[in-house]
Amino acid sequence: MGVFTNILRIAISAFFISTFATACSNGQCKLLDECSSDGDCEAGLYCFSCAMEFSGSRCVRSTATDQFKLLNNSLPYNKYAYLTTHNAFAIDGEPSHAGVPRITFNNQEDTITQQLNNGVRALMLDTYDFEDDIWLCHSAEGKCHHITAFEPALDTLKEIEAFLAANPSEIVTLILEDYVKTPNGLTNVFTAAGLMKYWFPVSKMPRNGNDWPLVSDMVANNQRLVVFTSRKSKQQSEGIAYQWDYMVENQCKKSFLSAFSFYYLPCLKREGVDFNVQQLYHSVESRFLSNFHINILIFLDGQGGMKEGECPNRGESSPLNDKTKSLVLVNYFGTIPIKQVTCEQNSGDLINMLKTCYAAAGNRWANFAAVDFYKRSGGGGTFQVVDTLNGELLCGCDDVHACVAIWVIRSLQAFIMGMIYSIHQD
Ligand SMILES: *[C@@H]1O[C@H](CO)[C@@H](O)[C@H](O)[C@H]1NC(C)=O
């Protein structure tokens, strides 16, 4: 065999390897096609591997549908669903701003600006008094520590201000787990960030289960920032809405097996477990990378904080079926934020929980679906889930895109009926 044939064979096999390894590239790959980089995938998708759902890397969704642009914004604020990030500020790779390395867990990977640009419309933020300022922090017992501090709230609020300024038809909702005791502490930081001009006033929020103002009116009035606090007193003192006067919320459950209770930290955190547990989490996550993780996952599935078929209310919230509250918030991040598991949770599990909570809420679909690592999924993930919620809320279909077709058919019907009517008149 000559050199030439060898080169030919190498060339031929290289050709086949390259054609079969990725059947698509250059922005041509569709949902769940194999990919090797984000650039291979169509707009709105990115290249991701979710070992629990598929092998290798595939294109999955990275952006939400804008329901206001797809349909219209002429319905009340409570008739739409909004993708919500739990602990939106607890971002992987966020540099330390408190002077010492952080020892705590992360719940997201994108910056606040990226989250908003990808269609997240509600952010859960934990606010604390810290360093004579207001900070976003993961902590316990209402006290922020240097090792659990993420960043001054001002930085995050400025990102939100920039988004609202650049997107004059969008509404952003903030749900604050609020430990700030400084009088007017929040008002001062919202003012400094330039956000007061977007403030949606408490006086316009319904407290008897009525509909909220229309999104189109909120946009026209430029009242596009809706803020809720977990501190009741601030409704009086600072005009910041007390969350559970307007919203029902489900609770994640913790395991009854204390040996494994550290898996349920986000639940426990709220009940004041100290940060040693959070350190433990780091060793847990690295163990998840090893082979025996499957056993633990099976355990989690059976005993999880997000127990299938149950949707109890969070302690501070009235029962989910209390219809004097017009908004429904469903949390789905009951286990500790373990990246490798989230992509499965954000896929089928999440929609099942939303169906359970729909029934628990007296046949009401969630307005807010709150998740960790919102972009991790086995395909449509949280974005498809919010499409489903908006479809159900807006036209009783399981995808908001179907509402467009229904709307076109109804308009056509109305047009034809109008024609027939005018022919009769003639
Ligand atoms: C806006 O969309 C909703 C949901 O499809 C529909 O019911 C409503 O009639 C639409 N309103 C206008 C003004 O087009």
UniProtKB/TrEMBL annotation:
It comes from Papaver somniferum. GO terms for biological process: lipid metabolic process. InterPro entries: PI-PLC_domain, PLC-like_Pdiesterase_TIM-brl. Residues 1-23 form the signal peptide. It holds the Pfam family PI-PLC_cat. SUPFAM superfamilies: PLC-like phosphodiesterases. This is Phosphatidylinositol-specific phospholipase C X domain-containing protein. GO terms for molecular function: phosphoric diester hydrolase activity. The keyword Signal applies. Keywords: Signal.
